[in-house]
């Protein structure tokens, strides 16, 4: 056997070993990621929860595997009235806060990238410093302000903080650093386009991959937020799904919107990855 043939054989073995390793690691990661979702589906459709009367006045939940396929009546019984009230409140808060977060973060990142001003470098450093501060630290002052100004049980107090999210601004800024073209903006200005028109009609479409990625992150963060709503939303009619839903119904309702959102936005994330690889 010649030297070239030995080299090709060794190369094939390395390629096969690399493929096997990649497949094994991918399968293990997929199982790890999907296991909580599969467990949730099993708890929802494969287990039956009943309130059982114990000794005296004690009552407790009994969880046991179903001995039959779940019926439509049993499926409807998984959801309580509180599930749908909480779902409505969560959708209002999450959709509005996500939209405002993405738009204002994008316009802030554009202002930092497109304009020259004295405090630009200092403002960038301030954003990085703000990212380092734990959210629980600022929560204390925020909750005190809500109580002081009688803003408890008001959903808008979960929306306003989303106007300024340092992490989202930082991500948008990094994306614009790699993709921003000053020539396009200058051409639009020469044609008579205003600054807001340039941003809304030219810059935002260019930022679709970054917007799609951050939309998923912001949506999930707001949708699953339980810490602040549990403190400032006291009355049942104003509470969100994570703190108002039932045991099984809320789990299913919590999982559906993020999955649907990802299905709609995943193509833009893939386009962004492809764009980055082409530029590289």
**CATH architecture designation of the largest domain:** Orthogonal Bundle
Determine the fraction of residues in helical runs and give it as a percent range. Answer: over 70%
Question: How many extended strands?
Answer: 2
Q: What is the 3D form?
A: globular
Succession of helices and strands: HEEHHHHHHHHHHH
The percentage of residues in β strands lies in 5-15%
Q: Tell me, what is the CATH class of the largest domain?
A: Mainly Alpha
Can you give the mean pLDDT? 81
Which sequence of strands runs across the widest sheet?
A: 1-2
Helix/strand structural class: mainly alpha
Low-pLDDT stretches: 276-280
Notes on the protein architecture:
This protein has 2 domains: 3-69, no CATH class; 78-279, MetI-like fold, CATH 1.10.3720. Helix 3 crosses helix 6 (166-179) and helix 6 packs antiparallel against helix 9. The chain starts with a helix and ends with a helix. It contains 12 helices and 2 strands, in the order αββααααααααααα. The protein has helices at 3-46, 72-77, 81-114, 120-132, 135-148, 166-179, 182-190, 195-206, 208-223, 227-232, 241-244, 249-279, and strands at 47-53, 59-65. Strand 1 (47-53) and strand 2 form a beta hairpin. Strands 1-2 form a two-stranded antiparallel sheet.
Reconstruct the topology from this structure.
Blueprint: H1 3-46, E1 47-53, E2 59-65, H2 72-77, H3 81-114, H4 120-132, H5 135-148, H6 166-179, H7 182-190, H8 195-206, H9 208-223, H10 227-232, H11 241-244, H12 249-279
Antiparallel strand pairs: 1-2
Keywords:
globular; mainly alpha; two-stranded antiparallel sheet; 280 residues; 72% helix; 12 helices; 2 domains; MetI-like fold; disordered C terminus
């Amino acid at each position: 056997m010649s030297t070239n043939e030995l080299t090709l054989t060794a190369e094939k073995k390395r390629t096969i070993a690399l493929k096997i390793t990649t497949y094994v690691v991918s399968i293990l990661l997929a199982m790890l990621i999907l296991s909580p979702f599969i467990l949730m589906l099993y708890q929802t459709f494969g287990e039956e929860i009943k309130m059982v009367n114990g000794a005296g006045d004690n009552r407790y939940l009994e969880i046991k595997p179903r001995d039959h396929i779940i019926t439509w009546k049993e499926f409807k019984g998984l959801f309580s009235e509180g599930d749908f009230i909480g779902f409505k409140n969560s959708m209002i808060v999450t959709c509005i806060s996500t939209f405002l977060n993405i738009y204002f973060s994008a316009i802030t990142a554009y202002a930092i990238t497109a304009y020259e001003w004295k405090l630009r470098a200092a403002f960038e450093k301030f954003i990085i410093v703000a990212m380092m501060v734990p959210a629980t630290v600022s929560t204390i002052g925020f909750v005190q302000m809500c109580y002081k100004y009688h803003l408890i049980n008001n959903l808008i107090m979960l929306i306003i903080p989303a106007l300024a999210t340092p992490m989202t601004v930082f991500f948008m800024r990094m994306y614009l650093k790699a993709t921003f073209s000053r020539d396009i903006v200058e051409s639009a200005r020469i044609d008579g386009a205003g600054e807001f028109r340039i941003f809304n009609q030219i810059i935002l479409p260019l930022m679709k991959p970054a917007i799609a990625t951050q939309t998923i992150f912001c949506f999930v963060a707001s949708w699953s937020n339980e810490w602040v709503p549990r403190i400032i939303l006291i009355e049942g009619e104003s509470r969100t799904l994570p703190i108002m839903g039932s045991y099984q119904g809320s789990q299913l309702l919590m999982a559906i919107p993020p999955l649907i959102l990802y299905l709609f936005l995943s193509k833009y994330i893939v386009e962004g990855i492809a764009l980055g690889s082409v530029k590289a």
